[in-house]
Amino acid sequence: MDTTLRSLRFRREREESWRQLETLLAQIDRRSATSLSDDEMLAIPALYRQALSSLSVARATSLDSALVDYLESLCARAYFFVYGARTPLRERVGSFFAQDWPSAVKLLWRETLVAALITFASAFTAYLLVSADPDWYSAFVSSEMAGGRDPSASTQALRETLYADPEGKTGLSVFATFLFTHNAQIAIFAFALGFAFCLPSSMLLAYNGCALGAMFAVFAARGLALEFAGWIFIHGVTELLAIILAGAAGLRIGWSIAFPGSLSRLAAAENAGRQGATVMIGVVVMLFIAGLLEGFARQLITSDALRWTIACATAAAWGAYFYRGDRRGIASPR
Fold this sequence. Notes:
Layout: H1 2-30, H2 38-60, H3 65-82, H4 89-107, H5 109-132, H6 137-140, H7 143-146, H8 155-163, H9 172-192, H10 199-220, H11 225-258, H12 265-300, H13 304-323
């Protein structure tokens, strides 16, 4: 009975400020913070501190649990308004594409160079092996991936795959979805497996490069090198860069675990993983764009000159987007 009376007296003395704070928060929920006047905006922090003081007293004096629960809920709502991020979703998305993603990629420039070196060195090695002995082709490219583009195919058949859509235009959307899923899996695994001291990420990058080099060797042997390059790079610039960036993020994690420096291995991996996660969000966007280019533009556009123009334009666009400005102004969080 005594506790109930104390709770009623306590509530009567301070309830007005709680209700005022609750009314302002409800107005923000219904409309927005811009609907408040300057005086109301300034009042919220003071009312929040009063509510927080009331909650402290209620807990210390063991007032009824219903009152304590109410004050906890009210203080939590006010806390997120006073201290939480109130940036609109549109601004957060804009900030990600304008600053967060390119900055994270720029920080990975060393790992990106290593990932690119692994990819293209593997492609060149596979090209030499298949050129010398076509039997190597099946070791690098599965029959499903080859889709009839193998050393046994005729020059005419290979040429037709570059300029005709054997599945028909209605199958392009399904084809684009399949390619997006396949490439996304490679990129995600290259990132996620980086914790194993970089080895799985390096192997996936090498595998992807070998498949590219082996297929290039088949077309080059039939005098279709430039045609194949235009066919592959109309989407391959975006796709390869996305996979290389995913591999670079995985390499950063593996390197941080192997050589954590002054940090613990867990802390080093956490820092690298946070940065890599930012890169990977953008990588998914790149793979989506590459999937559209691969499933639609590559088959609908049959002009070699236009294919090369798009490939060069996307290379220039991605390079300017990620690496514009002075890289030295950004310190790597190792």
